[in-house]
Structures are given as structure tokens and as C-alpha cells.
Amino acid sequence: MHDQVFIGNEWHESCSGRKIPVYNPTTEKLLCEVEEADSDDVDKAVRSARAAFQMGSPWRSMDASDRGHLLNRLADLVERDRLLLATLEALNCGKVFLVAYFVDLMATIKTLRYYSGWADKIHGKTIPVDGEYFTYTRHEPIGVCGQIIPWNFPLMMFVWKIAPALCCGNTVVIKPAEQTPLSALHMAALIKEAGFPPGVVNVLPGYGQTAGCAISHHMDIDKVAFTGSTAVGKLIQKAAGESNLKRVTLELGGKNPNIVFADCDLEYAVEQAHSGLFFNQGQCCLAGSRVFVEEPIYEEFVRRSVEKARSKVLGNPLLPGVDQGPQINQKQFNKIMELIESGKREGATLECGGSPGGQQGLFIQPTVFSNVRDHMRIAKEEIFGPVQQIMCFRSISEVIERANATQYGLAAGVFTNDINKALTVSSALQAGMVWVNCYNAMSIQCPFGGFKMSGNGRELGEYALQEYTEIKAVTIRISQKSS
Amino acid sequence: MLEVRLKLRMTHTCTSIFINNEWQDSVSGKVFPVYNPATGEQICEVQEADKADVDKAVQAARLAFSLGSVWRRMDASERGRLLSKLADLVERDSVYLATIESLDSGKPFLPTLFVDLQGTIKTLRYFAGYADKIHGTSIPMDGEYLTFTRYEPIGVCGQIVPWNFPLMMTAWKLGPALACGNTVVLKPAEETPLTCLYMAALIKEAGFPPGVINILPGFGPTAGAAIASHMGIDKVAFTGSTEVGKLIQEAAGKSNLKRVTLELGGKNPNIIFADADLDLAVEEAHQGVFFNAGQCCTAGSRVYVEEPIYDEFVRRSVERAKRRIVGSPFDPMTEQGPQVRKHQSRVLEFIQIGITEGAKLECGGKALGLKGFFIEPTVFSNVRDDMRIAREEIFGPVQQIMKFKTIDEVIERANNSDYGLVAAVFTKDISKAMTISTAMQAGTVWINCFNALSTQCPFGGYKMSGNGREMGENGLKEYSEVKTITIKMVAKNS
């Protein structure tokens, strides 16, 4: 296991000498310690990334197709080490191993391959301007990009960040979450093995308040990309304004509505709503945590959802047959339990769960609340745990208004067989992704991101390229133009 | 010695017709010989496809394209994975493929390995990357509608490739067609079918479903004509002579209005100003016309040199041509191999015409050696625009050097051609460079370079050098059919 700071393709001890303890949330035991990066380490990394970005450097003078080639090689190496990486994710995050292997690792490999294909297809334009000029645009890399990623999908988030950035020719200083640095550090080793020049990717495990803060305030970082909570996202945007107006993209929280009409395929809707909330122990920005069900099918929907929740098997994520692992740490555990208590106090009906899981400390029973009213905390705040809220609605205009009555706007689901309802609702919802008769249907070709306080900018698909590109227009005087 | 060992490796499989991932004999039972142009000797015999075989192939390709088939239902990214795997396999077998290509076409081995094979691999990888990035649009239409476009594959594509870059032209055709989800019936040139047939084996190994790619070695007037006029083929793509390109377009019109893209000949102007870097210009002009023994549609076969440097340019070009090493493709010192079998006499004929028309033969002009189809690097000066050697595509190692005085004059003379494939200009002056490149009626214009091609850039001709573009994002358009879908909305909002 790699446990140091990765700068300039070399492993370093932290400047401060401090280390971060890394835990296995299933056992709550210490897995290892890794070097803790702080602002001095960030300075070192930025210097390395800046040098790698200089005009004439190997990275700047490389064919775009060769950048793609390196990303493809990295995908090959992740594929080679798939078992190891899936095990690290399961150990470090409490993710169910088979899910880590088949979902997280598959998405990781596909993301790298997808962006490897884009590298030499990033086109500027030639433009017919007024006057005797020849004008074209160059789509240049922005420069040194700071990237701060969360603990819920550590490896997948790592490549969602580095792949488009590198594809466009940037250099990167990336800080994995302090809870989950291990897969990122293994990736650093693979990046070196793949042949990326030194300084192109630098990996700095550290805390948000120190290393993360240093990144968002740094005067020589040209762009910061953050995935995490809305609260911290606001700090990052502030910091960018206070420092050098670095470009900012944010992927933040969600309180995502999942709207189920009476004319849907009921069993399928129950199942999709269930997995849409409980996936990854509920620790997803996309969690469909407000399930709006049309009145005629409400009771039946609740009954079937509770049955599904009760059938989930909690346990050691490395073992087959386990559906749900532990929450990531005590802090998250406490927050989820506090919100569950508020649900009980505020008068929602606790249908099942609501208590810690049988085993050691960090497990929480799959929990379902019905008769939830929109003003309750569990209906407004992001829980980030295995807690499903089911509300009742009567009319289409009512549910659209209620679904949109939130500062968030990341994703939404609609279950109906009626084409008009589907198109009307999907057009009306203030959400970056709307799923019709499905949930969590994600693919790397498709843009991902939020309206309102769920973030700004888009990741994945061709759209991500815009966020990692700086446009330069070049205008050349010519003696006589022709169309 | 090398040739003998290779002959033993040519099994029955890579000399037959490839349909539905299976090797088959021709329906007629006919075979045709394939020659080594460096020695004139026969390498092997290959099954000869004709109309009946084309019918079988189209049937297989149509089935592979039907709604609900494995190919139609596959994730786009998975089509990309298959192309990427094919690129890996070509890379794995690149020395073998370069050897077969040299043997079959007379191309010198080292350039074949470093240019043709690299070009082939890069093309396949480039289009592998595009497969899941072919986007339609959603459109704010007038009225209460939700409208979007789908970029669908066209269907069964007939592809006819030439003998000058057999393997690379195969990749140029397959890459975009498969990235977009089409199925293919491809006919390699009868002079050079071997590397294309070996690719068929790699296509099967890569895991493409049966019927997606079918390879039919055969002759133009039979198999090629059957493809161009087939009622069950949705599009035909052809690279070759302008003369045959016209027949293909005619056949498309007569049959089912299949979509047509053509990459045809060129008589490409290379304009050298007095302020050019002279050494660079001489060398680039030399390689620009003599590369691949002059057998390039991009050959810079009309070199226009500004008067002040004309004599010096001719002197240096002749000296360079005399230094060009002609020999066996497998000799590492060789710069120029033989012509392809049936074209040597045509080139020699053109040289005689040039002499008769009064151009000055500066060097070369004759066939070389007793075996094989070699021709001396040949330079003509004092060429007038009305001479046949200045107007017609020679497709051999023959350089024409003309004199010009003014920029307006040379623009007019350069454009005075039915062709319009490429052009080049050598100058240090930014205004001259911009003016010439804007004015040239050519699909590609090079400034201070020649033959600078790469898979990311669209390539194709103005006028009778063809229509449509290959390579780059533009290549995808030619292999897509656009469908607009409009859905009534109860109430639209922006």
C-alpha cells in the first residue's frame, strides 16, 4: 500500500511530519497511516504542476493523441489491478465488494477510456469575422487544476476529475478525502507506471480545512473542482473570489425527488426507488430521498417499500450475500441518527428501521418514513444515509411545485407510462439529470451536474471538456479576405 | 529467402473470401494471381469474388444490420472497444503486415512499417474513441414540440479501396463506418489484396460479430461494379482514379441513389516563392512528388517556382533526384521501390509524351533493371501548363517544374485544373501564406510542409478530385443518416 505524498512522480514525506490515520469502517480498526499534506506540500505540488505545464514541456509539446494514449494505458493498468483496487475500496469505505468490483471499477475503467478518446478531438473553430481578418480559436488547457474529491466513491471520483483534466492537457493537484486516500495513492503509482511525465498529476492526501483550503486559496492554481457538501462548496467559491478568481466547478449535495404516478409499473417503481435511495448505504449525492407517490397507490407503495427495506442484509462488505455495509465514520453516523430522531420527533411515521444495525458501531438499519411532510427536516436536509422518505401527492402541478421547492437541484426521477406526464414533468423539474422510468441510470457519455445549490458546471460527456478548457481567439490580419 | 518463408505462412484462410466471419471460396470457383512487383513473380492465388459473392456478402451485412441484431443493440462504447482491440492486434502483427504489404505492393519496408502501419493503427484508435461521442441535438423548434435528432448508421456500406496504400486505406474506410455502427462489404484492389485479407482474420479475432465486415477480393469491372450498382447497398465509398469515380457515381444514380463519397486523383500544385527556405522547399517538393514511387493522390506533381530562384531550384531538385536510391523494398537503404505491375508502362508512356511535347528531360526517364517494374526518378523542367504531363495525373516518379512571376498568375495557373485535392505553398511571408491558402481550390493546403496528414484532419477533394471528407470529425458525417424525431408536448417551456 502506498502511504506518502505523490509529487513530481516521486513519493515524499509530508513537510510537517504529520500523518493521517486511515480506518476500516466495518471493523473501526486502523488500516494504516498516510502522510498528511498541508499548505507547504500544496505549494510544492503546485510548483511541480506549474513546471510540467510550461510551454515546451514534454506534456505541452506532446501530440494530443499521445495524451489519449497515456489515459488508455492507465485504463489498462486499472483493469490489471481491478481486484486489488476493488478490495481497497471495500476495506477503506465499507462498500459492498461485489458492487465495488462491478460498478465502481467498471465506471472507473470506462471513464478513462472515454476521455482517452476525446484527447485529439477537442476542436476550436475558424470564424468569419467582419473585416479583413482570419480568425480561429484554440481550446487550450486552463493550467494547474486543483481537485478535491469525496469519500463516497473515492476511486471513481478520482478518475472523473483527472480524466477530463488530463485529456484537455492540464496538470493536476488532487486531494483525496482524508477518510479514503488509499485507492488514490495506488492510482498515483499507476500514473507513474503508465508514463505520465512528472508533475502532471500530484496526489496529496490531507484534510479539507488545511490542504483543501490551501488549494482553494492558492494564487497559482488556475481552477478548482470540488465534489462534496454544499456547505463546503460555498467556502470554495468564496475562497476563489478572495484569491485569484480561479475558475470553479462544484458537484454538491442533493435532496432528489422521485415522482411515482399511479399509472407506473408499480413493482418496478418500488424497486428503482429503493435502490435509488439505499445504494452505497445512502451515501450518494443522487439519492432519491424524497419519494413522491400519487395518492391512489400510496399505501401499497409504502407497504412494498418497507418489505424491501426489511429484506436487506447488513454485514461485512467483503462477504458475498451482504447488501449493505457500514456508514463511513462516526461523524456521519451521528448526523444520520440525529436526523432519524428528528423525523420521529416531528411526527413522520417510522415504518421500519430507525436504529443502529446489530453489529459493531457504524451500521444503521435500512429506515423508511411515511407520512412525511415537506417542512420536516428529513424532507429538507440531505441525510446521506439509508433513510427513505415517502410522501403523498394528488396532482401533477402540485408535485412539480413541491419537487422544485428546494435549494438543491441535482437529479430527479419520474415513473409513469404516460408520454405526456413524462415530458411535462421532465421539462419542468429544476434538476441537472432527470430519469424517466429509471433511476441512477448513469453513463460516462452523459453530462452530470446540478441546478441551483447542487453545484455548477457539468462533469462527464463532452460537456466536461468545456470546464477544463480556456478559449483563445487568434486573429490574423490578411490583405484580402474571401468567403 | 524472406519471401519463401512468408509464402509458407500464407494459409488457405487469408487468400479466400471473408463473409460472416467465415472463409469461403468464390461462387464461380475462379481465382486470380497476386504478384510481387519487385521481382515480377507470383506470390499466390486468391479467390476471385464476383457479383454472386457480392450478393452473399450484402445478405450477411444486411442481416448483421437488422434491428435487434447484436451489432445494432451493442453499446456504442463497445463498438469503440472492438475497434481498439483491432488496433491492438494490428500493432501486435505490425512487422508481419508491413512485410506482406511490401511484398505485395513494392512499398519500401521501413516506410511501410513506420508510416503505413502507424497510420493504420492511429486511424483505428482515433475512430475507436469517437464511437460513443456521436451526438445528435435537441432543438428548440417552433410549436408545442420536443424535437431531437438521432445520428443513425446508414446501413450496408460498400467500400472499394486502392492499391497504393492498401492497409491504410482499409483502415480509413473501416474506422468511421464501424464507429458509426454500419456494416461493410469491402473490396481491396486486385493488385494488393493480401494485407486486407489478413485484417479479416484480425477482425474475427477482435470479436466483431459475423456479417459486420465482409471482405471480397476481386476486380473493379466485376465485383466493384456489382457493389456500385447493388440495390441492397446503402452507400458506396471509393478511393481510386477519377475515371472510375465517375462510373461509380453513375452507377449509384442508375441503381438506388445510394450515398456516394469519392477520393479521386490529383494534379497538385506546390508553389515555391523566392523567400522560401530553399533547402526545405527542394526536399519537401522532392518527397512530395516521389513518395511511394509517385503513387499518391497527393503527389505534388506541378511544382511552381518563382522566377528568381527557378534555375537553382531545378539544379538542386535534379541533384536530389539523381541521389534517390531505387531498389528492393527490403533493402533498408532503398527510398523507392517498383511501380505496381500494370502501371509501369503507363508512366513510361507519359514520360515519352513529355519529351515529345518539348519539356526538358533533366534526369531519369527510363525503366530500371531487368526484373520488376522499376522506373528512374525523372525530372522535367520548362514545362508548360498546356502539356499533358502538366494536366494529367501520371502516378509515377515524375516531377514537373514550372516557372512563375506573380502571385496572381500562380494562383490562376494552380487552380486551372479539374482536380482539387491538395496544394502547398513555401514562403516565409505570412501574407503570401494566408492569401494562397485562402485562394487554392483544394481540400488540404500545406504551408511550409507537404504530405502532413493526420487522422484528426478532414481530407478530401474539391472539384473532380472527389466529394466528401474522410478522417477527423467530418469523416463521421459521411457514415451517418440523420433522423429528426418530433414529439407533441402538452405545453412547451424554454
Automatic annotation (TrEMBL), chain A:
PROSITE patterns, A to Z: ALDEHYDE_DEHYDR_CYS (PS00070), ALDEHYDE_DEHYDR_GLU (PS00687)
The organism's taxonomic lineage, starting at the top: Eukaryota, Metazoa, Chordata, Craniata, Vertebrata
MF terms in GO: aldehyde dehydrogenase (NAD+) activity
Keyword Ribosomal protein: no
Family according to the record: Belongs to the aldehyde dehydrogenase family.
Gene that produces this protein: ALDH1A1
Organism domain of life: Eukaryota
PANTHER family per record: ALDEHYDE DEHYDROGENASE-RELATED
Residues annotated as the enzyme's active site: E251
The name this protein goes by in its record: aldehyde dehydrogenase (NAD(+))
Known EC number: 1.2.1.3
InterPro entries assigned: Ald_DH/histidinol_DH, Ald_DH_C, Ald_DH_CS_CYS, Ald_DH_CS_GLU, Ald_DH_N, Aldehyde_DH_dom
Keywords: NAD, Oxidoreductase
Name of the top EC class for this enzyme: oxidoreductase
Any Pfam family: Aldedh
Residue ranges of domain Aldehyde dehydrogenase in the record: 11-474
UniProtKB/TrEMBL annotation, chain B:
Single GO MF annotation: oxidoreductase activity, acting on the aldehyde or oxo group of donors, NAD or NADP as acceptor
InterPro entries cross-referenced by the UniProt entry: Ald_DH/histidinol_DH, Ald_DH_C, Ald_DH_CS_CYS, Ald_DH_CS_GLU, Ald_DH_N, Aldehyde_DH_dom
Aldehyde dehydrogenase domain: residues covered: 23-485
Residues annotated as the enzyme's active site: E263
CDD domains: ALDH_F1AB_F2_RALDH1
Keywords carried by this UniProt record: NAD, Oxidoreductase
Keyword Lipid metabolism: no
Family: Belongs to the aldehyde dehydrogenase family.
UniProt protein name: Aldehyde dehydrogenase domain-containing protein
Lineage of origin: Eukaryota, Metazoa, Chordata, Craniata, Vertebrata
Gene (name only): ALDH1A2
